[in-house]
Known about the structure:
By secondary structure, the protein is α/β, with parallel strands linked by helices.
Amino acid sequence: MIDAAIVGCGLIGDKRAASLQRHGARIVAVHDVDTGRAAAMADRWGGAVAPSLDALLEARPDLVVVATDHASLCDVGATVAAAGCHLLLEKPGGRTAAELRQVQHAAERSGVTVRVGYNHRFHPSFLRMRELGAAERFGPLLHVRARYGHGGRIGYEREWRADRARSGGGELIDQAVHLIDLTRFVTGDDVSLAFAELRTDFWAMDVEDNAFLALRPRRGGFAWLHASWTEWKNLFSFEVAWQTAKFEVIGLGGSYGVERLTF
């Protein structure tokens, strides 16, 4: 049995705790700066409420899930890795590449595994798309065209995502990074940046509310991605065109609508 601990007991941390327990892991400790939120998680999933990160590590978990805001991800992650615990960092992993390298170096010294929570590639539609298209049975890639967006709500500009010091950026680091990861996943290779425009079109904030990206997969083809915080309601659409076939994923479940794969 895996002994797991959670740092950050909000919505995402709670989802990870539920999934871990469903797959046979045991929650041994939880920690959050909001002790009431940590206590509520412990009531739901078990484990001790740790008053500090050091106290959580004293429980000797095999795995630690870090689900804090972006500003704390790498500081906590580097400490956890240095302590010899395997680590799941929620995306984007950190605000900058330099921050992430701190985690990388700590993990290399300790010999632990670190993964960043790009969970969209594990949705059934994308697993099936990768399975069908990985052998390039449909000829070369023509293009990827994808959209991902949050529905706007009153006060959005005052939420933590709009604070560059806490978030590290706007819609690019929030949802567009999922589109980049999915493009790499379904094409089976890395990509290079051909063009980008980050715009603040609506919200009074110092980060972008819309991100437009053009990418070139190394195996050929082209990808056009748009992530937006100015949708009327939550939206997800991901299309992949090969020479003789096309895949389209609409929806992700929940507020994004039923997930559907068309082939």
